[in-house]
Every structure is written in C-alpha cells, then in structure tokens.
Amino acid sequence: MNAAAVRSIFLLCLICLGALLSGCERQSPEPGEEVVYRLKWLYNINTAGDLYGLEHGVFTAHNLKVAVKPGGPERDAIREVELGRAQFGVASADQVIRALAKGAPIVVIAQLFQGNPLQWIYRGGNADYAGPDDLRGKTVGITYGGNDETIMRSLLAKYSIPPSEVNLFSVRYDYTPFYSGEVDLWPIYRNAEGIVIGEKMARAGEKTSFFVPDLLDVRFVANSLITTRKMVEEHPDLVQSFRSALLTAWQEALAPANTEKTIALVHAYDQNTPQEIIAKQLAATRELMLPENGRFGQIDVAAWQQTERIMLEQGVIEAPVHVDKVLLLDGR
Amino acid sequence: MLPKRISQFLIIYFLGLGLLLAIKYCFSLSDYVIPGFTDIENTAADVFGRYLRAVLDTLGVAVIGHLLAIALATVVAIAGRGDNLVGAMIKTAAYNLQAYPIVAVAPIIFILLGDGLPSRLLIAAIICYFPLLLSFIGILTEPVASIEHFYVVTGRMRWQLEVKIRAFENIHKLMTVVTGSATLAMVGTIVAEFIGADSGIGYSLRIALYQSDMAKVLAALFLIGVFNSLYLVSLELLGLVIQKNMGVEPRMN
Description:
Largest sheet of chain B: none
Largest sheet of chain A: 5 strands, mixed
Helix content of chain B: over 70%
Helix content of chain A: 40-55%
Mean pLDDT of chain B: 88
Shape of chain B: elongated
Oligomer: heterodimer
Distance between the termini of chain A: 58 Å
Distance between the termini of chain B: 13 Å
Radius of gyration of chain B: 22 Å
Strand order of the largest sheet of chain A: 2-1-3-10-4
Mean pLDDT of chain A: 89
CATH class of chain B: Mainly Alpha
Number of strands of chain A: 10
Number of helices of chain B: 10
Radius of gyration of chain A: 22 Å
CATH architecture of the largest domain in chain A: 3-Layer(aba) Sandwich
Low-confidence stretches of chain B: none
CATH superfamily of the largest domain in chain A: Periplasmic binding protein-like II
CATH topology of chain B: MetI-like fold
Structural class of chain A: alpha/beta
Order of helices and strands of chain B: HHHHHHHHHH
CATH architecture of chain B: Orthogonal Bundle
Order of helices and strands of chain A: HEHHEHEHEEEHEHEHEEHHHHH
Shape of chain A: globular
CATH topology of the largest domain in chain A: D-Maltodextrin-Binding Protein, domain 2
Structural class of chain B: mainly alpha
C-alpha cells in the first residue's frame, strides 16, 4: 500500500469519526425549543394519546413543541434518549431493566399501561385454559429473546410446570401456524393484533379467548415514559410539563366523549386498520390503561419490582438493578 | 492468500470496534448503547461455542445455496444467451425479478416452505442468483469473434462449443463473479434466518437484537467475518486450481 493510499484511508477514517461524533453529540433542549419524543412502535392504537397530544393541541397548550417519532424494531427509544437524539421515549419495563443492568442513565416518569397488553390468544372459550396446568401438552408460541419468552418461562417456573411438558414454538410475524392449528397459544398485543386476529377468527366461525399472565400473578410492566436523569435534574419544569401534557393527552384520547375524534386520528396515521377495528382496539386499550383505583399514569412499584425479580430469576439480568430507584413517582 | 484475507478482515473489524469504543468513552455512553471492552470479552467467551455452531450451520446453508445458484444461473444463462425471443424474455425477467426486495418475498417463502432448511437455502440462492445470472448472461452473450469466426464459417459451430469458447476466454471474470457472489450467499442466508428461521447465526442475531445486546451482535459479526473470509479464500484457491487445470495463466481479478 503506497503512502497516498494510507493518507486517503486515514482521511476517510477522520471524516467518519467526525460524522459519528457529531451524531453522538448530546443535546439538551433550550427553552421553547422542540423536544423529540420517540415512541416504542409504529403508529397504531398504542400511540393514540401521543398523536392526540400532537394533533389536538395538548402539547401546544403546555407551551411545548414536540416532534413525535415512530419507533420500531430497529429504533430503541432508550438509546435515542441516552444519545440525546430524543428527550423522552416509551419503553417497556424489561427494556428499561436490561438498560439499567448495562448502566444506562434513564429514569421512568410515568407508567402508561396499567395492565400488560402482551397476552396469548387461543381458540375456544374460557374453559380450555382456566389455569396454568392446562398449558401442559399444549404448543405455546414464544418469541425467543423477547419479553413473552421471559413471561412464559417465569409462569411455567412459578407453577412448577417443566418446560418439557410444554411444546414451545418459535414465532415471528406470520400467524399461519396459529390459524392452521399447529400452535395452540400465540403471543399478541391484546388491544392491537389481538382484536384483528380475533375478528378474523370470528368471521371464520371460531371463538377466541386470551391467556392473561397478569391474572396468574405474573405481572410484567409494559409501556412507560422514560427520560434521562440529567433531563430531570437540569430541566425539571420541562419534564413536568411534558409528563403532564402527555398524561392529559392520553386521558382525553381515551375519554368516551372523544371516541370519534380518537378513532379518526388513529386511522389517519394507520390507514391499514379499518375504523371499526380501531374502535374495538380503543375499547380494549381503555381497559388496559385506566387504573381501577388511583391516578392515570401512576407507577406500580410492586409490579416493577416483580418484573425485575422475574428477569433475575430467568437469568435475563445477572444482578439486581434496584429498579425502584429510577421510578420517579411524580416525575421528580 | 488466507493470512491476507483474514488480516484484512481483522484490521477492518478492530478499526470499527476501536472507533465505537472511542465514541463510547468520549461521550461516557453506557454499555447499553455501546458495550465496553470487558463486556464484549465476557459475552464473546460466553456465546462462543453456541455462535460457532450457528455460524457453521449458516455457512453450510450458504455454500449449498451458492452452488444451487451457480448451477441454475449457468443453465438459465446458456438458455438466455441467444439473441432471440427466449433470450430477450429471460433477460427481461432476470432484470425485473431482481428488483423485488427479498424482505418482501421471504415471508411468502416461509409460508410456503416453513422455517426449515428449504426456505433458508432458497433465499440464499435467490440473493446470489440474480447477480450471477446477469454476469453469466453478459459473459456468454459476448462473442469471441477471433475464435468463433473459424467454426462459424466452417459450419462446425454448435451451442456447446460456443459456450465452452466463451467460458474459457472469460474464465477469470467468471471466477471473480462466483467468488464475489459468495458473500451474497452468506448475506442471503443470514437475512433468511433473521426473518424467519429458527437456527443459524441470523437467528442468533435476531435474538441478540431483541435483547438489545450489542456485545452479542459484535461477537456474531466477528465470527461471520472470519468464516466469510475463509469461504472466499477457499473459492479463490479453487478458482486458481481450475484455471491451472485448464491451462490458463492462474490469476484473480
């Protein structure tokens, strides 16, 4: 390799380094500046409140300029928040706990879902899977590496069901094995795909039900609002303002009086889902998000601690992370 | 040849890793965003055996898929080399079909064939098949006028002879295309495993990404790079042997 080539490679490395470093530069928003809010997933019913805040002026009413950005499999809100590319994000408890185990400086300022929408759909009525023992001999879908695997393994361990007595099936986006009857229980988000699949099965004359780990005392916290500890310390007013705006937006989106507005809004962003389905999804989402007692967005510390315990027992994390220390119950 | 390929890969890998670690320590990023050296080392030690088996599984499928693609591309290119309706149709179909993204086609393949070996093989073959086909068609449709003229005017030209002449005269190009498509076969297999299979290093990568475990991803990338280099070297050596046996001056482009 001649000297010119070495110089060119060196220069290219420097340019790459410069570009990467500029991408990693942490930014704190100035007053009145736009804040970025990274969602956990693509626009669907689970983002109804976020979209409502954006489109119906709730953020503006709180003097906030917010850019709501969709998430997805390759967009991790925790990484975005730590890198300063977003100031707020949505993550599930298992993501938060994994990140804490690796030293991520994040905190939880609200818990959006009070019940976990991640459940298992199955054919038939309630009698077939009345209890965990009914899982014996069944084929149960799990996403290897996903939080449903952790939940199911924890449930099996809790009720002393040896994994050898349950046939675990690796699932992906294609539901054919469930439709064809190859798999008895399939993991889904009850308020999103659960409604779509349930409807399809109903059209084919088949009844479906849901296997709910929460009811068997395996509580695994789902979507929550996160930010960095630095944001809370340096911009407490902004954090409070955003938290308050978001919770207001969600409450308004879920309010029965605003049903039509919310359905139209979600449909505008998710045109592949018919409005009739969105209406059913909205009703299911209400049940999962509105607390039976207490305030909307409240953090269920006991459920978070159980989530951590489950992950520890399942070997997902190696040591306790003391998750309660990052749960800021009133966002402070 | 082998030390050169491996050292090239190691230089690129460790330069990339060094860059990531520089960013990590520069901005005090947590191990969640970019894993530290100790984390990578511990994770690599932990997953090495499992990932080694997975990458060998992937390599096996990639090699078979690559061979299938070469065989199929050879047959189709021979059929499509002519300047007639069949040739024109094959070329048009090849150009159009290669425009479909495999991530859109793969789920259909998995529905039809399930998540076992046939799907992985087919996707690996599809990904490297089209570039091979287009190159093979290009080579086999280009007349070698100085040699072919004699057989044409004497009426002794047959299609088998035409293919042999063109392949012989372009053996360096053919070997380069075959070697180059090996990486595509490996990529195709990994994509297939990532999307829908339940074994192989692509499947392990999917799980690591679900778990947001970058240390596992880096360990997998290392093994993929090493074994891909080994496969390329094997093909290059095979190419040299073939050229030598054909009496052609052995060289790689």
